[in-house]
């Protein structure tokens, strides 16, 4: 082998190593370039995603702005004397029960107002559907939505005024709800219920109403007992002397005595007023007749009243009645 060949042979590995080194460098450069491209692509992708998110958020905001704000409607509570007649009575009557039973509470409120107008201006025309109407009114009185509840209570008040004694057969379910609403609900609902109860005791014959109210003074709910006691007291005051005598002085005295020791002050105060009313009737009528019949020395008013209470009541109840009715005489 010549010297030149030997030099070329010895130099070839070095050249190969340099070539390899050169190749490695180019590969590194290639990889480095790819990484930069990947980073750029990722950044571009992130920017696109951010832009899309901003666009979506902007569109959502526009969509939200486009949706109209839900406004709670304001219900107007019109007093009975300010209600006007309906233009098409037959059409309103034909659909009244369906509208009172609607799932749309605003429609029910409107129907209740129409029922009020019909009871004022066309009570005879509405009489055939009165029973079913009261059932639906009670349903609305029980509704937790205060606006609907109050409108239904106002309707019941107008029915009491329009139909008076004709309401007595449909009274029980309505009575219970009015007692509850007048004692434990929001103030503006409670006031409407109290007005309805006053209208009831004003418009329905007291002898019929007292009989209907009697079971409620024994109700397990003290609030119901209290409201029933107040209504009985109002009704008895309307009975007058002859009415109390006809109904039974001793029966009414037992009602008063049972409530004098009741849990709530409202019930006790109503019972006290009732007992005083009965004492007044006793003095005017019963004791007066006894005086006419007595030849010997007649007993005093208090003695005669105490004796009457003791013969009609238990000892405890008699003492309670005597205590509240003799302190002012």
TrEMBL record:
<dbReference type="InterPro" id="IPR011989">
    <property type="entry name" value="ARM-like"/>
</dbReference>
<dbReference type="GO" id="GO:0005881">
    <property type="term" value="C:cytoplasmic microtubule"/>
</dbReference>
<dbReference type="GO" id="GO:0000226">
    <property type="term" value="P:microtubule cytoskeleton organization"/>
</dbReference>
<dbReference type="InterPro" id="IPR034085">
    <property type="entry name" value="TOG"/>
</dbReference>
<feature type="domain" description="TOG">
    <location>
        <begin position="76"/>
        <end position="304"/>
    </location>
</feature>
<feature type="compositionally biased region" description="Polar residues">
    <location>
        <begin position="20"/>
        <end position="38"/>
    </location>
</feature>
<dbReference type="Pfam" id="PF12348">
    <property type="entry name" value="CLASP_N"/>
</dbReference>
<protein>
    <recommendedName>
        <fullName>TOG domain-containing protein</fullName>
    </recommendedName>
</protein>
<feature type="region of interest" description="Disordered">
    <location>
        <begin position="1"/>
        <end position="38"/>
    </location>
</feature>
<dbReference type="InterPro" id="IPR024395">
    <property type="entry name" value="CLASP_N_dom"/>
</dbReference>
<dbReference type="GO" id="GO:0008017">
    <property type="term" value="F:microtubule binding"/>
</dbReference>
<feature type="compositionally biased region" description="Basic and acidic residues">
    <location>
        <begin position="1"/>
        <end position="19"/>
    </location>
</feature>
<dbReference type="InterPro" id="IPR016024">
    <property type="entry name" value="ARM-type_fold"/>
</dbReference>
